[in-house]
Write a structure and sequence with these properties.
Number of strands: 12
CATH topology of the largest domain: Rossmann fold
Bound molecules: S-adenosylmethionine
Protein name: Fmu (Sun) domain protein
Distance between the termini: 67 Å
CATH architecture of the largest domain: 3-Layer(aba) Sandwich
Pfam families: Methyltr_RsmB-F, RsmF-B_ferredox
Strand content: 5-15%
Organism: Hydrogenophaga intermedia
GO molecular function: RNA binding; RNA methyltransferase activity
Structural class: alpha/beta
Helix content: 40-55%
Family: Belongs to the class I-like SAM-binding methyltransferase superfamily. RsmB/NOP family.
CATH superfamily of the largest domain: Vaccinia Virus protein VP39
Radius of gyration: 23 Å
Length: 423
C-alpha cells in the first residue's frame, strides 16, 4: 500500500478506536473484516499504530497540541509503527518539521501524566498500593505483553513442547512459576503449528494458568467454573481433572461459551458441560447447591491488570464502572458460594489491580459468610510446587492472596483469594 494511503487508513482507525464505544480489539477486527484486501504487514502496522496511540495517549495528545492537520492524523503519525523513512514519505513538509521537533522534547520536559499515561483516578489508586514501585509499574503497563502458551497436560509434556517449538524455529522458554507455561519471544504466527491444531497448546497468560492451578481440581470431582467465558481456565481445569468427573462451565454470555466449543474439541476433553445461565441466581445453579467440590469465580472485572494487552481499558473504565463491577462481583461470589459442599474450595479471582474489586470484595464476603474459612494462598501454591510461591502473594497481605503485578512477576495483573467451606 502507498505510504500516504496507509497513514490515512491508520488515521481513520485511530479515530474509530478513540470513540471508545467498543473494545479496541473489536473495532480493529471489524476494520480488517471490512477491508479484506489489507495484507498481513499492513494489518500489523495498523494495529500496532492504534495500540501505541492508546498506550501513550496523554503524551501524544500533549505533543499533538502543536502541529497541523486533524488530531487523529497527528496521533497516528506519533504512534506509527512502521519504518521512519516510509512514514516521512507520507508527510507534508510542515508535518516532517513538527515530527522532528516532537522527537527533540527532552525527558525532563514531560510532566508525570505524560510518563505514566494513566487517567488521574487510576494513577492515584495504583500509587496508593505500590508506593515507590509506581513508576516501574506504569512503565511496564506501557509495554506489550509477551506471548504465553499453556501445554495441555493430557497430550504433551512441557519439555517435549519446548523442543517442538524450538525445532519450528521459535524462541521458547519455560515460564518461571506455572508448571504448564511456555513463553515465546516476539509475535510468531501460531496457526501453522500442528501442536495448536491438535490441542497440545493454548494461548494463555502465565498468571491465568496459576489461577486454574490454584483451584487444584482432582480426578472424579464435581467442579464449577462460574464465569467460564471462552474457557481459558476451563480447559486447564478439565485437564487437571484428567478428563474425569464433571466440570460445569457457566457464563451469562452464550456467545462466549460458543467460542469454547472448538477449543474443547481440540483439547480432547469430554468432562466439560457448558451452560449458558441467565444471571448468577439462575434456577440451574440452585439445583446444584451443596453438591460441588470446587468453584472458581473468575469474575467479570475492569480488566485493568491486562493493560499491556488492552490499553483501551484505562480510557474506557471509570470509578463508576469499577463500582458497578464490584457490586456484581459481590453478587456473583455470594451466589456461587452456595454451590459448595462442606470441605469444598472456593476461589475468587480477577484480572484487576484495584483493591475495590479484590481485597474489598473478599472482606465483604468473609464478614457475611462465617461458614467459609479463608485459606492463605502461598502455602497452597507451595504445596503445588510453584517456585517462589511466597513472592507471588505480596508480603503486605500476609501471603493470604495471590497478587500478581506485571512489573514484579512479568505476568498480567491478577488477584485470587481462597476459602474452604466449613464442615
Ligand atoms: C474474566 S471473564 C472470564 C474469562 C474466562 N474465565 C477465561 O479464563 O477465559 C468474566 C466472564 O464473566 C461473565 N459474566 C458476567 N456476568 C456474569 C454473571 N452474572 N454470572 C456468570 N458469569 C458472568 C462474562 O460473560 C465473562 O465471560
Amino acid at each position: 500500500m502507498h505510504p500516504k494511503a496507509l497513514l490515512d487508513e491508520c488515521t481513520a482507525l485511530v479515530e474509530a478506536v478513540f470513540r471508545f464505544d467498543h473494545p479496541a480489539d473489536a473495532v480493529v477486527a471489524r476494520h480488517f473484516r471490512e477491508n479484506k484486501s489489507l495484507g498481513p504487514r499492513e494489518r500489523g502496522t495498523l494495529s500496532d499504530t492504534v495500540y501505541a496511540a492508546l498506550r501513550e495517549r496523554l503524551k501524544f495528545e500533549w505533543l499533538a497540541r502543536s502541529g497541523s492537520g486533524s488530531k487523529w492524523r497527528r496521533l497516528a503519525i506519533l504512534g506509527f509503527s512502521g519504518d521512519r523513512d516510509f512514514l516521512k514519505s507520507a508527510l507534508s513538509e510542515p508535518e516532517k518539521v513538527w515530527l522532528d521537533a516532537c522527537a527533540k522534547v527532552r525527558e525532563d520536559e514531560w510532566l508525570a501524566p505524560h510518563r505514566h499515561n494513566l487517567p488521574e483516578w487510576l494513577a492515584g489508586a495504583l500509587r496508593e498500593q505500590v508506593g515507590d514501585e509506581f513508576d516501574a509499574l506504569a512503565a511496564c503497563l506501557l509495554q506489550p505483553a509477551p506471548l504465553d502458551l499453556r501445554i495441555n497436560i493430557l497430550k504433551t509434556k512441557r519439555d517435549d513442547a519446548l523442543a517442538a517449538l524450538r525445532a519450528a524455529g521459535l524462541k521458547a522458554t519455560a515460564t518461571a512459576h506455572s508448571p504448564w507455561g511456555v513463553r515465546l519471544e516476539g509475535k510468531p504466527s501460531l496457526a501453522r503449528l500442528p501442536a495448536f491444531a491438535n490441542g497440545e497448546l493454548e494461548v494463555q497468560d502465565e498468571g491465568s494458568q496459576l489461577l486454574a492451578l490454584l483451584l487444584d481440581a482432582k480426578r472424579g470431582e464435581m467442579v464449577v467454573d462460574f464465569c467460564a467465558g471462552a474457557g481459558g481456565k476451563t480447559l486447564a481445569i478439565g485437564a487437571t481433572m484428567r478428563n474425569t468427573g464433571r466440570l460445569y462451565a457457566f457464563d451469562t454470555s452464550a456467545h462466549r461459551l460458543d467460542a469454547l466449543k472448538p477449543r474443547l474439541a481440540r483439547s480432547g476433553l469430554s468432562n466439560v458441560h457448558p451452560v449458558a445461565i441467565a444471571h448468577e441466581r439462575d434456577e440451574r445453579i440452585k439445583r446444584l447447591a451443596g453438591k460441588i467440590d470446587r468453584v472458581l469465580v473468575d469474575a467479570p472485572c475492569s480488566g485493568l491488570g491486562t493493560l499491556r494487552r488492552s490499553p483501551d481499558l484505562k480510557w474506557r473504565q471509570t470509578p463508576q464502572t469499577v463500582a458497578a463491577q464490584a457490586a456484581l462481583q459481590r453478587a456473583i461470589l455470594e451466589s456461587a458460594a452456595r454451590l459448595l459442599k462442606p470441605g469444598g474450595r472456593l476461589v475468587y479471582a480477577t484480572c484487576s489491580l484495584l483493591r475495590e474489586e479484590n481485597e474489598d470484595v473478599v472482606e465483604t464476603f468473609s464478614a457475611a459468610q462465617p461458614g467459609f474459612e479463608s485459606e492463605a494462598v502461598a502455602p497452597l501454591l507451595q504445596a503445588l510446587k510453584v517456585p517462589d510461591a511466597q513472592s507471588l502473594c505480596g508480603a503486605h497481605e500476609g501471603e493470604r492472596f495471590l497478587r500478581l503485578w506485571p512489573h514484579r512477576h512479568l505476568t498480567d495483573g491478577f488477584f485470587a483469594a481462597v476459602w474452604r467451606k466449613k464442615a
